[in-house]
Amino acid sequence: MKELLEKINAIRSELINELKDLKDQAALKTFQETKLSKKSPINALMSNIKNLQGDERAAFGQAVNDVRKEIQDAFAKKQAEIQEAKVQEQIAKETIDITLPSVDYKVGGINPFYQIIDEITDIFVSMGYEVKEGPDVETDYYNFERMNIPSNHPAREMQDSFYITNSILLRTHTSPAQAHVMDEKKGEPIKIICPGKCFRRDDDDVTHSHQFGQVEGLVVDKNINFGNLKATLELFLRKMFGEKREVRFRGSYFPFTEPSVEVDISCMECHGKGCPTCKGTGYIEILGAGMVHPHVLEMAGYDPKEYSGFAFGVGIERVAMLRYGIDDIRKIYQGDVRFIEQFKDK
Ligand code: PHE
After folding, report:
1. What's the CA-to-centroid distance between 198 and ligand 1, angstroms?
2. pLDDT by residue (tens digit) across 153-206?
């Protein structure tokens, strides 16, 4: 019996030691299969029980069971330890090192072209205008005919343009949007602006580009007069360029307005005295406008005896260049971050 108990102890120590050295799931599995199964050394010891009698038999059985239980518990503990270690290892691997410096991305700004559109839009929306859009690709009919520019009219040559077919072209101004809106409103009052792109076969230089932006404006209702046009544009230009700005209306000509004006603001460099920026005139031309031509109203089904209106067209780049002192229109389109980022906080 003594000998048997020593054997149990020896097996116990051996298994406890083996358990200590287990490192991973695979080792746990092998241990379980060989040392905790039916064919384990502990079970093998049990076969000796038949040689024992009475108390000894019970004591031996108890001793074997105790060891089995102890090894099973130790195994469970080891299993939990290995699993926990695995989790910890995974966490350590997935930790982000927040002390690493991040990649320095270059952030530009919103192109001044779009900043100006936003500003103009804000001003007119605050006066109750709706914002509309017209197509960039237009028919001859909308771009010219509906703007009171028939096919033999010399104004067509002034806007010599990009034709896609004989009767389809890239719009040369945003004015055809006026006709689209009038068609849509079918005789109802109108108060809209329409920002968008225009295209002309210009030779590109520091102040011209074959593609540029305009914001068109149109108001049609009963009793709209030239005083409304003047007050609206003065208010707009002072909001845009500062309260001190002088606004000057000069008689001009557009086929789709009558009377027509060109509107100037006093030069921001010399305040009207005359300098190189304003070519010595003290003023800078900023937009075209006029009372909607009766024929344009008529073509859209508005009775010019009952309805009248005014329209205007502002050049977006021109406003941006004056506001920010940009000396070359082409810089607006080149997407150079060094240029764009100057307008980040404007
Ligand atoms: N469409 C004109 C242009 O392109 C501008 C304009 C718009 C003039 C509306 C009068 C009224 O120059």
Report:
1. 11
2. 887 877 778 999 999 999 999 999 999 999 999 999 999 999 999 999 877 788
- Give the distance (Å) from ligand 1 centre to CA of residue 269: 26
Query: Which among 132, 195, 128, 201 has a CA at the least distance from the CA of 169?
Result: 201
pLDDT digits 0-9 by tens, 121-155? 999 999 999 999 999 999 999 999 999 999 888 87
Task: For strands 168-170 and 163-165, give the pairing.
Answer: antiparallel
Residues in the chain: 346
Helix, strand, or coil here: 268?
coil
Instruction: Please indicate, yes or no, whether residues 228 and 326 belong to a single structural domain of this protein.
Output: yes
Same domain, 21 and 135: no
Decide whether any atom of ligand 1 lies within 6 Å of the 143 Cβ. no
Ligand 1 centre from 228 Cα, in Å? 17
298 in a structural domain: yes
Residue 247, classed as helix, strand or coil, is strand
Q: Among 156, 254, 314, 319, which residue has the most ligand 1 atoms within 8 Å of its CB, making it the best to mutate?
A: 254
Amino acid at 205: D
